[in-house]
TrEMBL record:
<keyword id="KW-0812">Transmembrane</keyword>
<feature type="compositionally biased region" description="Low complexity">
    <location>
        <begin position="170"/>
        <end position="189"/>
    </location>
</feature>
<comment type="similarity">
    <text>Belongs to the SYG1 (TC 2.A.94) family.</text>
</comment>
<dbReference type="InterPro" id="IPR004342">
    <property type="entry name" value="EXS_C"/>
</dbReference>
<feature type="transmembrane region" description="Helical">
    <location>
        <begin position="427"/>
        <end position="449"/>
    </location>
</feature>
<dbReference type="Pfam" id="PF03124">
    <property type="entry name" value="EXS"/>
</dbReference>
<keyword id="KW-0472">Membrane</keyword>
<feature type="transmembrane region" description="Helical">
    <location>
        <begin position="474"/>
        <end position="495"/>
    </location>
</feature>
<feature type="region of interest" description="Disordered">
    <location>
        <begin position="168"/>
        <end position="202"/>
    </location>
</feature>
<dbReference type="InterPro" id="IPR052486">
    <property type="entry name" value="PHO1"/>
</dbReference>
<dbReference type="Pfam" id="PF03105">
    <property type="entry name" value="SPX"/>
</dbReference>
<feature type="domain" description="SPX">
    <location>
        <begin position="2"/>
        <end position="335"/>
    </location>
</feature>
<keyword id="KW-0813">Transport</keyword>
<feature type="transmembrane region" description="Helical">
    <location>
        <begin position="655"/>
        <end position="674"/>
    </location>
</feature>
<dbReference type="InterPro" id="IPR034092">
    <property type="entry name" value="PHO1_SPX"/>
</dbReference>
<feature type="transmembrane region" description="Helical">
    <location>
        <begin position="507"/>
        <end position="528"/>
    </location>
</feature>
<keyword id="KW-1133">Transmembrane helix</keyword>
Amino acid sequence: MVKFSKELEAQLIPEWKEAFVNYCLLKKQIKKIKISRKPKPASHYPIAHHSDFGRSLLDPIRKLARTFSDKLFSNSEKPEILQVRRRRNSSETGDDVEEIYQTELVQLFSEEDEVKVFFARLDEELNKVNQFHKAKETEFLGRGEILKKQLEILAELKQILSDRKKRNLSGSHRSFSSSARNSDFSAGSPGELSETQSEASRTDEIIDALERNGVSFINSATRSKTKGGKPKMSLRVDIPDAVAGAEGGGARSIATATSVLWEELVNNPRSGGGDFINRKKIQCAEKMIRSAFVELYRGLGLLKTYSSLNMIAFTKIMKKFDKVSGQQASSTYLKVVKRSQFISSDKVVRLMDEVESVFTKHFANNDRKKAMKFLKPHQTKDSHMVTFFVGLFTGCFISLFSIYIILAHLSGIFTSGAQVSYMETVYPVFSVFALLSLHMFMYGCNLFMWKNTRINYTFIFEFAPNTALRYRDAFLMGTTFMTSVVAAMVIHLILRAAGFSASQVDTIPGILLLFFICVLICPFDTFYRPTRFCFIRILRNIVCSPFYKVLMVDFFMADQLTSQIPLLRHLESTGCYFMAQSFKTHEYNTCKNGRIYRELAYLISFSPYFWRAMQCIRRWWDESNSDHLINMGKYVSAMVAAGVRITYARESTTLWLTMVLVSSVVATIYQLYWDFVKDWGLLNPKSKNPWLRDNLVLRNKNFYYLSIALNLVLRVAWIETIMRFRVSPVQSHLLDFLLASLEVIRRGHWNFYRVENEHLNNVGQFRAVKTVPLPFRDMDSDG
């Protein structure tokens, strides 16, 4: 039977962990009470004579009678052994009232001091749970009010769009004829007047729709008016304080104006020469509001779980107290708990019901089953078949790789100088697949560790819970990928040994590469389509970094690319090899000696760092945080170091050696500082965990110290480019592949601590529900 403490640990919301009742602390206090109740060792002094000393034959009868009497009169009133008093404290602003519970012992206990400490801590936990629940309840109720207001405005605008379409269809011909008749008299002025009147009419319609939903206009009396007497649409709008003040956590009132989505609607109705309210904008706004409703419902569900788990925890802990103390205190205390705010309030349940009905009506065409698919997405459970195929493909990979090693040894691939063309042409293609498979395997290890340590990576990366990749899926993709690659390598060697034409055999790597590209972009819902399309979308966002808002998953993936520069270089040589049709002539130097190919090496080595630097600039622009500019400097220094090392590999002079040392040392120190201090949040000299941080997910601190040392060693692998531990071209390629693999391993190791630090930041701010941007968003009053 699983202990409740472990069950609670497995079910609680990780980001709200500190707000849950501290079950373990209360359990330890009960153990202290139990220890204090143990009888003291017998004294050496003689026992005083007692009138009841000795046993009687009637003792069992007396005991039975007492038991019967207790059961008979169990319903009669018994004196309570404790009283829980409730007092109300006003907050500093005076707008809110906090309920504080305090327990007083009516009956004396033999271990009174320990019991008093226990109930004092129990009261603290109850007050903490109540206050947190009330704060979150207020926040979600505020979100609900704002979403209802957004939905009402959206409904009015959709109605305007529908009505205007009907009028345009019925009146377009009549308007055109009238304009044609008047053109001979006024040279087009009546047509212009008609257009102006139509624009004013549309503006009045929108203002009327907003005003019907409680929207007022600032300084409307002093602003210029439309012909209908309405203030022009260039004015800012604000939602009344009754709605604005409902936003949870908002210290400022909401001065709501349209976002970029609605910029044309409010400020420039004639831009683009078309309708300033169009179907595309309406659909986009509807999607934003729908996502906000889904997040609100998810947050309400989490708060409901929070209440039920805490109630169970209080019940369990009070039963343990009754068992240890031999008293019946649980009934009295649990009555107070049930009357407290986090249990007695039904606002969360009522709001959940309201969200369900609103969502069903507006976003699911009154289809409740369809609505619940959005609100409560089904999370598929891990299949045993996935585990089976992971084991199967792992076994196949090991067997095929052993066969490949034997065949390569027999054919002299890695020893004979005559086989240099194999290492220069075919081997880079297979290296691409090997590095990708290794990276996929490391990502699977990351998912496994994040799951076991209760790190909510799906929330951090904003993945859909029902389609997010799990660690078994990642292992299946990696083993399938690598098994296919090794099988192709074995077939390639067998066909070469069988005497097939080299120009035909060497097309196998290209066919394999083409096959995997087709699988990646396959539009059919097979082989993890949501994951594949998400990967493609993230790559697009990375390449176009300045033009897309940068999310956590975007810069996380961009960091992965900075560790895969050897893979990108291999792709360059592979592309040149097949595009130049070198597989027919086997002149592998055709690409390497080309000027464009040599110049592209700089571009490819710079690109991941450049994209990452552009993301830092975009984040600085969006957030006005200078740390992003400092972070950009790290990638610029890495870019310079990479370029200098490429030049040194071609021109091995003392000057370039000095530049390699200087640029690489500066970039490495920059990277190590950012890794440990910013990305991992470590090296805090004032931390209670020496040179780490106060909160650690892993219980054994030695893992963090070992990880710091490992990251340090792998970060200085560039020293190999200076010392050049190479004997032959074959060994040179193998060493390059080994160093590239070590960098992938370092990145996978870095990933865990980076996401762990992000998770702890969310925990510190109790952030378990994301905030979805709305079509009508907050603006500063002076905006």
